Amino acid sequence: MILCNSTYFRISNFNDSMKKYFVIFLISFLSCHNTKSISADPMKESHEEVQLQDSALLNLRQKNDVVIAFALIQTAWVKSVNYKIVTLNKNEWKGYNYSINNTRHTTSGLTPVNVSNDSCNALWKFIQERDAVKIKDDNGENFCSGDKKNSCNINDGASWQLLFITKKDVVTPAFYEPEFYENCCPGNKDRQLFLEVANKIKNIVPAGNEM
After folding, report:
1. Residue 210 belongs to some domain of the structure
2. Which CATH number goes with the domain that contains 129?
3. To 5 degrees, how large is the angle CA 107–CA 112–CA 115?
């Protein structure tokens, strides 16, 4: 029995009409496969799912004990992601810039940069002490509450994302234009902690060539 969108075909005993049933089977299979392909909208996939498929990030995860990153995600005009990354392996920290331009289908590749061991250790200690891996993000909605709910708006903005990656876990909290909304309608403690971590990473990793 072949199932696809509640439609089924039964293939019974092989007989003279075997070819007919084989054709039905083939068409049904291709129809199911095509339906899956069309319905798989990559924009609806979580950032975590997309980034776990990125070969550069996957490579960093495999080779390091800890990967901490800040990502600026643009989706309005130029669709791009710009990363600032620090990695920890055997008590040694390394830094990278990494950019992807999905509009042009280009990437910078991982670009090594010099980072301070002391600053990276302080960042990792801050993340652990403040339990930043448990930040609750805005889930792409409800950026403001109260009286300013309808007065604080920005269009065509960018999303900010943090990545906390270990061998066992990947945590990727994200906020839409967190600096703007924190200035316009302050008070979200998770967003405030998110901004503290993001700005620490941005200060540690020197500027790169954003795409």
Report:
1. no
2. 3.30.1560
3. 135
Residue the block writes with tokens 């293939």 = 11
- Least Cα distance to 134 among 97, 167, 172 occurs for 172
Asked if 91 and 177 count as a contact pair (C-beta separation under 8 A), the reply is: no
Which residue ranges of the chain lie beneath pLDDT 50? 1-14, 17, 19-46, 50
Q: Does an H or E element contain 196, and which?
A: helix 189-204
Burial of 105 (0-12, 13-18, 19+ CB in 10 A): exposed
The residue segments making up the domain with residue 59 are 47-204
Q: Is residue 211 part of a domain?
A: no
pLDDT digits (tens, 9 = 90+) for 10-49: 434 445 545 444 444 433 433 333 333 222 333 334 455 5
Could you tell me the pTM of the whole model?
Answer: 0.73
